[in-house]
Amino acid sequence: MAGTPAGRAVGAFLDHLAVERGTSRNTLDSYARDLRRYARHLERLGVDDLSGVTEAVVGDFLASLREEGLAASSAARTLVAVRGLHRFAHREGITGHDPARDVHPPTPPRRLPKALPVDDVLKLLDVPGDTPAQLRDRALLELLYSSGARISEVVGLDVDDVDAAERTVLLDGKGGKQRIVPVGRPALRALDAYLVRARPSLAKRGTPALFLNARGGRLSRQTAWHVLKTAAERAGIRAEVSPHTLRHSFATHLLEGGADVRVVQELLGHSSVTTTQVYTLVTVNTLREVYATAHPRASGGT
């Protein structure tokens, strides 16, 4: 296609990127590969001039990428190159219109939250030892899983935010929104052990913070994340563990146990139930697996 009007337009566009835009060699190579793929698509349609390209042609090219199994992110990257080509051709007067302007990249698949099985959570929470740091870490992890709080919310807690009598904790969420969340008895026992036997020795200076570091200051989010990661390694958990792992597990386990999604929404502090509904996809996948294993007609057999 190099000798066709479309091929010459592609060459001019790549030269423009290299000379006038100073685009890196890696990016140029990537654009060239993507546009060669696009050029082959146009050839199959008998289009040798960009003036003959319509929005439907560009949309059909994008659909063909997905049919070939290209990931949404890769298809989106390819579309960036195609849109850049047509924008350049229109601006330079090579074509009278820009057919790719209103073609949008594919929506990437919704990533399901990664939740741990209940048995793995219990192993992670089982922090051995009775040193001040170990008592603190156990209380921290128990509270994260019991409340579904973000790590930033838990390290931001003050001692007075925990109401042991009511078995609740007051969390400061995003946008300054506060919410009261119930706390389970195991977490309260771990908190009591930490407050009585560990926090006094860590509190070297007066501070209202609930969780303290070795210097007596408020525990940082980074240190709390390190506590979680260390606990996962100790428990032999091979799955990827992130700062939100216990929060995701909290939500998933509640829904699997029959909790209403709107209740879980309130507990997580989501402003919209739509945000929470991603967890229902996890439970549907679990139900599908159980169905496929247990139902005699699930696989279409006799």
From TrEMBL:
SUPFAM superfamilies with a match to the protein in the record: DNA breaking-rejoining enzymes (SSF56349)
Subcellular location(s) of the protein: Cytoplasm
Signal sequence residues: none
Keywords from the UniProt entry: Cell cycle, Cell division, Chromosome partition, Cytoplasm, DNA integration, DNA recombination, DNA-binding
Chief place where the protein resides: cytoplasm
InterPro entries associated with the record: CB, DNA_brk_join_enz, Integrase-like_cat_sf, Integrase_catalytic, Integrase_recombinase_N, Integrase_SAM-like_N, Recomb_XerD, Tyrosine_recombinase_XerC/XerD
Active site (record annotation): 150, 174, 244, 247, 270, 279
Residue ranges occupied by any Tyr recombinase domain in the UniProt entry: 111-292
Ranges of compositional bias, category Basic and acidic residues: 93-104
Ranges for domain Core-binding (CB): 4-90
Positions of region (Disordered): 93-114
Keyword hit for Cell division: yes
Family: Belongs to the 'phage' integrase family. XerD subfamily.
Function recorded in the entry: Site-specific tyrosine recombinase, which acts by catalyzing the cutting and rejoining of the recombining DNA molecules. The XerC-XerD complex is essential to convert dimers of the bacterial chromosome into monomers to permit their segregation at cell division. It also contributes to the segregational stability of plasmids.
HAMAP family in the cross-refs: Recomb_XerC_XerD, Recomb_XerD
Assembly and interaction partners: Forms a cyclic heterotetrameric complex composed of two molecules of XerC and two molecules of XerD.
Record protein name field: Tyrosine recombinase XerD
Organism: Saccharothrix hoggarensis
